[in-house]
Amino acid sequence: MSFKTPDLLDRHEEKTQNGSVRVVAPMFQPYGGRASFSGQIVTLKLFEDNSLVREALSGEGKGKVLVVDGGGSLRCALVGDQLAFLAHKNSWEGIIVYGCIRDAHDIGQVDIGLRALNTHPLKSVKKGVGQHDMAISFGGVTFRPGEWIYVDGDGVIVSDQPLNGETR
Questions:
Q1: Which of 61, 161, 162, 165 sits CB 3.0–4.6 Å from 92 for a disulfide?
Q2: What distance in Å separates the CA atoms of residue 159 and residue 40, rounded to the nearest whole number?
Q3: What is the pLDDT of residues 82-129, one digit of tens each?
Q4: Residues 6 or more apart from 148 whose CB is under 8 A from it?
Q5: CB 66 within 8 Å of CB 92
């Protein structure tokens, strides 16, 4: 599927005005090998512990994007090359990390969409602490499980329904 977030917003201007389509603040850097990606949202909320990230990415990801609220921490990485390889293997469309990643060069070689705040060489702890499948908020937007996310070089948008107007 091919799309441009500006075109989606233009086609759905009324939905943007009524809040059913939201634009995330421009805060993310691109790291994965896939320039644009979209899918249904799966959420995690955690802090400096990526145990649940591995658990989520171990499951089937076809048509899904994992959105990780890492509290915006810049003190360790929540996704590295091994998790990116796992996501690709399990057909995830992409990952958004409100936090850091590591192994940026290697992740850039993986056919997965990935956006994060920055990079950090330190791995996270692994205590299994966090929550999944809940509404999370950052970047001025609330992300709800089952909603739709569209990501490209122009930004990140979230919609409560799939947006038509995409081209294949």
A1: 61
A2: 10
A3: 999 999 999 999 999 999 999 999 999 999 999 999 999 999 999 999
A4: 38, 39, 40, 41, 158, 159, 160, 161, 162, 163
A5: yes
